[in-house]
Amino acid sequence: MERFLITGGKTLSGEIPVKGSKNAALKLMAASLLFDHPVTFSNIPDINDIHSMKKLIELAGGKTYSEDDQITLDNSKLISSNLDCDIAKRIRASIVLIGPLLARIGKASFPHPGGCVIGKRPIDYFVEGFKKLGARITLSDDGYKFSGRLRGNDIFLPFPSVTVTETLMMASAIAYGQTIIKNAAAEPEITQLAELLRLGGADISGAGTNTIVINGTNSRLLRMKDPAPFKIIPDRIEAGSFVILGALLSDCLKISNCCPEHIESLLYTIESAGAKLTRGEDWIKVGRSNDIRSVNITTGPYPSFATDLQSPFSIFLTQAQGESMIFETVFEGRLAYLEEIKRMGANIILCDPHRAIITGPAKLRAREMESPDLRAGLAYIIAALVAEGDSVVHNVYHIDRGYERVEERLRNVGASIQRVQV
Ligand code: UD1
């Protein structure tokens, strides 16, 4: 077990480069199961969720080769439609593998899902979507079994779920006939997934809008014409979290290797709260301002304010003058981490499972905290960097799931943070 020791109050400066997107990389690795030739990706983050996905694919018969920030996946000889239960339960994103497995092998099984502890995370939209594509589904104590030959259909999603959109896109890419996904999610990770599938010969249009049309290849596997590595987009949640950190603690922090266009909602909101920003095509510079004002946020599907940026942004709001409201509409139970921020001295009223009122500015006191999940874990690090004194953040493994050696990168810009073995 490891923990972070953090001494707050240090001013940050310099440049912090953003790594490749976890949520894009996981789905692109899954999509490689639709290819009959090796596919190479670059800008792969070195994080635990990626290692788990790699292991799952290897256990299903795929071959993987990693070097620096590149990974090659050769799934020409997939042998198993069963996913390793322990790993699949650990990362919820592994559910996307059902799409390519079912489309390619005609069956797939999946344990009851796991992942971050952020309220109810059912899989009913996946099940309904696969039923629409003609799959048979049985449920047992171990989990779900899917089978059948997939045929395209019209599918309306009750909510624009990211992983459901991606899973159904992958399944439909090599299914028979046309699939239209309505009320689809439009996150940049989805646009990039469509780009990869198209490069492999799939017929997909509309990704990045709320209607995606896929004409299946009638079971023909995909193949890249150009073997050059496919570069993963920068992680927009990491970029946004660093922007928040810079607005709180730096004279000037440059966030590089990022895509400002993917976090317009955060940049708009933080600027309206008084933060000073400049930006280029792939960088953002941010410094703290003496005049940070309260602002309300409502999380929602892209391009609205990302739910994954809600927890780091709440720390920013504890330092803003006045009363701010957070309205979390995507997940239920994603505000529980605020109890710990209250104990640090923040003035927060938890109104209900979806809404909180934060009144600032408040002086945060150092504390010993247990990271409850990936995103709240990073929020605790930010809070500890703002607080006066020495804090401890436990359960570092949650943070390692999604942020590559975050303590080294934060130290490089002046933060006092050490990883220690317990
Ligand atoms: C993805 C991201 C996660 C992000 C979230 C929302 C990955 C690996 N994870 O998660 O970081 O926080 O998008 O931007 O990409 N829902 C159902 N039934 C289902 C599926 C989803 O009710 O079958 C609900 C969820 O409970 C939630 C909402 O739909 O309330 C949106 O969730 P969804 O977009 O599916 O999140 P994920 O794709 O799991």
Q: Can you put this structure into words, describing what you see?
A:
Helix content is 31%, strand content 25%. It has 422 residues and is of the alpha+beta class. The chain has two domains: 2-19 and 234-421, Enolpyruvate transferase domain (UDP-n-acetylglucosamine1-carboxyvinyl-transferase, Chain), CATH 3.65.10.10; 22-231, Enolpyruvate transferase domain (UDP-n-acetylglucosamine1-carboxyvinyl-transferase, Chain), CATH 3.65.10. A four-stranded mixed β-sheet has the order 21-22-1-23, with helices on one face. Strands 2-14-16-15 form a four-stranded mixed β-sheet. It has a four-stranded mixed β-sheet with strand order 4-5-3-13, covered by helices on one side. β9 (154-156), α6 and β10 form a beta-alpha-beta unit. α1 (22-31) runs parallel beside α2 (48-59), α8 runs parallel beside α12 (374-386) and α10 (310-318) runs parallel beside α12 (374-386). The mean pLDDT is 95. It binds uridine-diphosphate-N-acetylglucosamine. The site of uridine-diphosphate-N-acetylglucosamine has 20 residues, from α1, α5 and α6.
Q: Brief description of this entry?
A:
This protein is α+β, with helices and mostly antiparallel strands. 31% of the residues lie in helices and 25% in strands. Helix 1 packs parallel to helix 2, helix 4 (98-105) runs parallel beside helix 6 (162-173) and helix 8 (236-249) packs parallel to helix 12.
Strand content: 25-35%
Number of domains: 2
Question: What is the averaged pLDDT score?
Answer: 95
Shape: globular
Named once each, the bound ligands are:
uridine-diphosphate-N-acetylglucosamine
How does the major sheet shape up? 4 strands, mixed
The number of strands is 23
Give me the side-by-side strand order of the main sheet. 21-22-1-23
